[in-house]
Specification:
The chain is mainly beta. The chain contains one helix and ten strands, in the order H-E-E-E-E-E-E-E-E-E-E. Strands 1, 2, 3, 4, 5, 6, 7, 8, 9 and 10 form a ten-stranded mixed sheet that branches. The longest helix has 18 residues. The N terminus is likely disordered.
Amino acid sequence: MTRSLALAAALSALALSACGQSGSSGTAGAGPVAVADAICRPTPNGRQMTGCYLTLTAPQADTLVSVASPVAALAQVHEMRMESNMMMMRELEQGLPLPAGQAVALEPGGNHIMLMGVSEPLRAGDTVPLTLTFANAAPVEITATVGQPAV
C-alpha cells in the first residue's frame, strides 16, 4: 500500500509541475505568474497597432509593470474607462496590480496590452512573442495567438 501511495504522490507532483508556467522563480520566493488564454487581435488594414488580452494569476501580490514584444516598437498596459460619457484609453503608468491568487483578466473593453508600431501586419493564425515584467516575480515569456478574442 505504501508503494502505491508513493507512486500516486509522485504522479500528482509530476502532473502539477506539467501544468505550471515555464520560467524561473522570482525574487524573495515569489513563484512565477501564471498566464492563460493569450490572444492578440489581427492588425486592421493600414494600422500598426492592436490589442492583446490574457489572464494573469500571481501566487503573491504583484504588479505587471511592463510588456515588450519584438513585433512592436512599443507595448503598454492600458486601461479603458468612461470619462464624460466617452470611452477613454490610457497607459497604466504605475502598472496593473495583481492580487495574490486572484485571476486578473485583460479583455476587450477593459484593461489590455496595446502594441504600437507593429512592424508587419498580424494575421489570424500568426503568433506574437510577449515578455511580461513584474515588480516581484521573474519575467514571463509567452507566445500569444493572433485571432479574435471570445469576449
